Automatic annotation (TrEMBL):
Highest taxon above the source species: Eukaryota
Family the entry assigns: Belongs to the glycosyl hydrolase 30 family.
Domain Glycosyl hydrolase family 30 beta sandwich: residue ranges: 504-571
BP GO terms, sorted: glucosylceramide catabolic process
Any GO CC annotation of this UniProt entry: membrane
Protein name as annotated: Unnamed protein product
C-alpha cells in the first residue's frame, strides 16, 4: 500500500488482516472464504504494518508454529510484535470517560470514550456512592514458579522481553503481586529443598543456590521484573513441603511434619522459612508476606501426587503461636503472615488461629484459592457470601486470592472446561476467561483485596511439571522453537483489573436501581477510587444480550455505556 492508495484499496488490504485478528462469527465465515486467495491480497507478515488502518484492532492470531489461526488467541512472534495496552485513560479530560472492552467476539482492550451528561438519580441504572467505602486493594499478579522461569528463558531474547512487557510494563497489564514458592512445587522439574542435610535443625547448610542457576533462572527473572516495573510489587512466599528429613513419611507427598508444634522439627521449619526470607532479602528481593503453607487441609481423597504438607487449623494455630509467629516477629518484624492459603470452601472452618489471642497477634491475612467452586455452576464449592461472613467477623484481617488456574479438572467432568491446555479452542478459551472474571469480580464485591494467578507462563503442554499435573496459564510459550507466545483471553480479563486497580484503591458502594436489577441480572459490577484520583467501574456481562447502562458518578452526572454480550468492560473517569 502506498500513500496514494484509495480508500477502497486500503480496505481491500486491511480486511484480510482484520479477519485474521477477530474470531467473530461473521469474520470467521468471510475469513474461511478468503483464506485461499488471501496470499494474493496481502502477505501475512504485512498485516502488522497495516495495523494502524484497523482502528482498535491490534491482535494477530496467525501462528507460524501451527500454520493456522488460533481463534481467540493473540500471537506474538519475531514477525508480529505483541499488542500493547492503550494508556489513553491517563489523558482523560473533565466530563469524559474511557471505556475498555474485551469481548468473546474478539475485541481485546478495545478503547473508546463516552461523555458525561446531566441527569437525575432517577435516570441511573447504576450509582457510585463515594461516601461508602470498603476494602483496600493489595494487587493482582501471578506466581514465579520454576516452570514460569524455565519457559521464559526457553525463548529468544526478544520474546522474553515481550512476555515481561505484557505483564509488568506500562504498555502491559502492570501486575502488582507476585508469589514465590519456597523450594520446589509440582511445577518444577524435580523435587528439591534448600537444606537436604538430615537433622540440620540450625539450618547451617541452608542455601537458595538452586534459584540462581540456569536450571530455573528464577532469581534472575524476578530481578528483571523488579527492574522493569513502575509499580510496587508485593511479593509473598509459600511453601509446598519441608525438607524430606522433617517428614514422618520420609516423603514430601501428602506428608506430615514429625513431632508437634513447639518441638524441634516445627521450630526448624519456622527457621527454614525465616532463612528463606533473609536469603531473598540479601539478593535485593523484599518479601512482603508469607503464607503458613500452601493448601494444608487434608483432602477427602488423596489424589494429589506432589509436594503437600498437611495439617489442621488447630495445628496451624499452635505452629503460629509457638514457632512461626515468634520467629518471624524477631527476624522479620514487618513481614505479613497469611493463614490458610487454601480453598474458599474451608474458610469458615479454618479460624483456630484467629480465635486464639496468642496466635492471632501474628496474623495479618487469609489466603484463598478457587479450586472448589470456580468451574461448577451448581455452587458445590464455597460460596462468595462466606467471604463477607468472614470479613464481618474479622474486619481487620485482609483476604487475598493467592492461587487460581484453569485446566485443573478432568475432561470427563462435563461442567468444567477440561484438563490442561486447550490452545485455540475458541469456546473453552472464553469460558476460562469467563470463570476468571466471575471469580475476581465476586471476590472483590465480598471484601477480597486482590487476586493472584498461578503460573505466569507455561508451555503448550501445560508444564513443565514433574508430576504431570498439567494446567493452563494466561500466556503460553512455543517451547519447540522459542520464538512465539500465545496470549489467551484469561490474560485480557486479568488486565481489566490489574491495570486499573492500583494498590491502595478503595472499593466504593455501587448499586443498581430497583427497576434495573432484573434487566441486569447477567451483569456483575464493582467500582473503586484509585490513589491516582480516578474512579474505576468494572462490568462483566455473562449473558448473550447487549445492555445499555447509565452510570451515575459521584459528581451527579451520567455516562452511558453499551455492554456487549459476553464481555468485560472497564470504565475510567477522573475524580
Amino acid at each position: 500500500m502506498t500513500a496514494s492508495s484509495t480508500p477502497g484499496e486500503a480496505f481491500s488490504l486491511v480486511w484480510p488482516c482484520w479477519s485474521l485478528r477477530n474470531p467473530t462469527p461473521v469474520a470467521q465465515e468471510i475469513r474461511a472464504a478468503m483464506v485461499g486467495t488471501m496470499r494474493g491480497l496481502v502477505p501475512l507478515a504485512a498485516c502488522a504494518a497495516l495495523l494502524p488502518l484497523a482502528q482498535g484492532i491490534d491482535c494477530n492470531n496467525w501462528s507460524m508454529r501451527y500454520k493456522k489461526f488460533l481463534d481467540g488467541v493473540c500471537v506474538c512472534n519475531s514477525t508480529v510484535a505483541c499488542d500493547t495496552f492503550p494508556n489513553d485513560y491517563q489523558k482523560l479530560s473533565s466530563g469524559e470517560a474511557g471505556v475498555y472492552r474485551t469481548t468473546r467476539d474478539g475485541e481485546r482492550f478495545h478503547y473508546e470514550t463516552a461523555t458525561f451528561v446531566a441527569g437525575s438519580p432517577a435516570d441511573a441504572d447504576l450509582t457510585i456512592d463515594a461516601s461508602t467505602t470498603y476494602q483496600t486493594i493489595i494487587g493482582f499478579g501471578g506466581a514465579f514458579t520454576d516452570a514460569a522461569a524455565i519457559n521464559v528463558y526457553k525463548m529468544d531474547d526478544t520474546i522474553q522481553d515481550m512476555i515481561l512487557d505484557a505483564y509488568y510494563s506500562a504498555n502491559g497489564i502492570q501486575y502488582t503481586t507476585g508469589r514465590i514458592p519456597i523450594s520446589s512445587t509440582d511445577f518444577s522439574t524435580n523435587i528439591y529443598s534448600y537444606d537436604a542435610t538430615v537433622d540440620d535443625f540450625d539450618m547451617r547448610d541452608f542455601s537458595i543456590a538452586v534459584d540462581k542457576t540456569s536450571a530455573t533462572h528464577k532469581l534472575e527473572l524476578i530481578h528483571r521484573v523488579l527492574d522493569m516495573t513502575q509499580r510496587n510489587l508485593s511479593i509473598f512466599a509459600s511453601s509446598w513441603a519441608p525438607p524430606v528429613w522433617m517428614t514422618k513419611e520420609n516423603s514430601t507427598l501428602n506428608c506430615h511434619l514429625k513431632g508437634n508444634p513447639g518441638e524441634e522439627y516445627w521450630k526448624a521449619l519456622a527457621l527454614y522459612y525465616s532463612k528463606f526470607i533473609t536469603a531473598y532479602e540479601n539478593e535485593g528481593i523484599s518479601i512482603w508476606a508469607m503464607t503458613t503453607q500452601n493448601e494444608p487441609a487434608e483432602p477427602l481423597i488423596k489424589l494429589n501426587a506432589w509436594q503437600s504438607l498437611r495439617f489442621t487449623t488447630k495445628t496451624e494455630r499452635d505452629f503460629i503461636k509457638k514457632d512461626l509467629g515468634p520467629r518471624m516477629k524477631a527476624d522479620h518484624p514487618d513481614l505479613k503472615l497469611i493463614i490458610m492459603d487454601d480453598n474458599k470452601i474451608n474458610l469458615l472452618n479454618w479460624l483456630a488461629a484467629l480465635e486464639d489471642d496468642d496466635a492471632a497477634q501474628y496474623v495479618d491475612g487469609v489466603g484463598i484459592h478457587w479450586y472448589s467452586d470456580a468451574d461448577f455452576p451448581l455452587g458445590l464449592g464455597g460460596s462468595f457470601s462466606d467471604l463477607t461472613t468472614f470479613h464481618n467477623k474479622y474486619p481487620d484481617v485482609f483476604m487475598l486470592g493467592t492461587e487460581a488456574c484453569e485446566g485443573y479438572i478432568p475432561d470427563w467432568v462435563f461442567t468444567s472446561t477440561g484438563a490442561g491446555v486447550k490452545l485455540g479452542d475458541f469456546n473453552i478459551g472464553w469460558w476460562r476467561a469467563h470463570n476468571y472474571a466471575k471469580d475476581i469480580i465476586n471476590d472483590l464485591t465480598n471484601y477480597v483485596s486482590g487476586w493472584t494467578d498461578w503460573n505466569l507462563v507455561l508451555d503448550t503442554n501445560g508444564g513443565p511439571n514433574w508430576a504431570k499435573n498439567f494446567v493452563d496459564a494466561p500466556i503460553l510459550v512455543d517451547e519447540a522453537n522459542g520464538n512465539e507466545i500465545y496470549k489467551q483471553p484469561m490474560y485480557y480479563v486479568m488486565g481489566h483489573f490489574s491495570k486499573f486497580l492500583t494498590p491502595g484503591s478503595v472499593r466504593l458502594k455501587f448499586t443498581a436501581a430497583s427497576g434495573s436489577k432484573s434487566r441486569l441480572s447477567d451483569v456483575d459490577w464493582t467500582a473503586f477510587l484509585t490513589p491516582e484520583g480516578q474512579y474505576v467501574a468494572i462490568l462483566f456481562n455473562k449473558g448473550n444480550g447487549e445492555e445499555t447502562v447509565k452510570i451515575m458518578a459521584p459528581s451527579g452526572k451520567l455516562v452511558q455505556v453499551v455492554i456487549r454480550p459476553t464481555s468485560i468492560q472497564t470504565v475510567v473517569f477522573n475524580k
